[in-house]
Design brief:
By secondary structure, the chain is α+β, with helices and mostly antiparallel strands. Helices cover 36% and strands 24% of the residues. A 5-stranded mixed beta sheet has the order 1-2-3-4-5. It is globular, with a radius of gyration of 16 Å. This is GNAT family N-acetyltransferase. Pfam families: Acetyltransf_1 (PF00583).
C-alpha cells in the first residue's frame, strides 16, 4: 500500500488519537490515555504550540504518526524528543515506521539539534534491534523516571 508522510493538521487529530489508543493497548496500558482530541488540537495547533506531528496517510486514512517536541540538554544544547512513533497494526512491516523515523531524523538534522531522544520498552526486541541497526544507542543503564499527577501531589505534600 502506498502512503505519504506529511505535517499533521488539526483535523487529523481524531485519527491520531485513535492511533494513540491503539498504541496504549499494544503497550498493555489501555486505560492510561487521558489526552483528548481537543487537547491535541489545542496543544499542537493553538497559539502555544507544544509539539510537532507528522502523519502517514494511505487511501485518505492516517495509518501512522510521529509526535515530537523541542527539549534542551544541559550537556548538548538543543535536542528533540520523539514522544511516540505509531504505525497501525495492518501497516507494520511495510517500511512505514522506518519512513516516519527518517522524517523525524531529517527534521532534527534541519533544526541542527545535537540529539534525538525517545524511549522503547525493554520487551520490544524488534524495535530495539531496528533502532540499533540504524545507529541509535539504547541506554540500558538509565531508568526513566515519571512523576504523575498523584506523585506530584505526594511530592508537594512532603514539603
Amino acid at each position: 500500500m502506498k502512503y505519504i508522510i506529511r505535517d499533521a493538521e488539526a483535523t487529523d487529530m481524531a485519527q491520531v488519537h485513535k492511533l494513540i489508543k491503539e498504541l496504549a493497548v499494544f503497550e498493555k496500558e489501555d486505560k492510561a490515555v487521558e489526552v483528548s482530541v481537543e487537547d491535541l488540537q489545542r496543544d499542537g495547533f493553538g497559539s502555544n504550540k507544544l509539539f510537532h506531528c507528522y502523519v502517514a496517510e494511505a487511501d485518505g486514512e492516517v495509518v501512522g504518526m510521529a509526535l515530537l517536541f523541542n527539549r534542551y540538554s544541559t550537556w548538548k544544547g538543543p535536542i528533540i524528543h520523539l514522544e511516540d512513533l505509531i504505525v497501525t497494526e495492518s501497516m507494520r512491516g511495510s517500511g512505514l515506521g522506518a519512513a516516519l523515523l527518517t522524517k523525524v531524523v531529517e527534521h532534527g538534522y534541519n533544526l541542527g539539534v545535537k540529539r534525538i531522544n525517545w524511549e522503547v520498552l525493554d520487551w520490544n526486541d524488534p524495535a530495539i534491534t531496528f533502532y540499533e541497526s540504524r545507529g541509535a544507542k539504547v541506554m540500558r543503564d538509565w531508568n526513566v523516571v515519571h512523576l504523575d499527577e498523584k506523585g506530584i501531589q505526594k511530592f508537594l505534600n512532603k514539603l
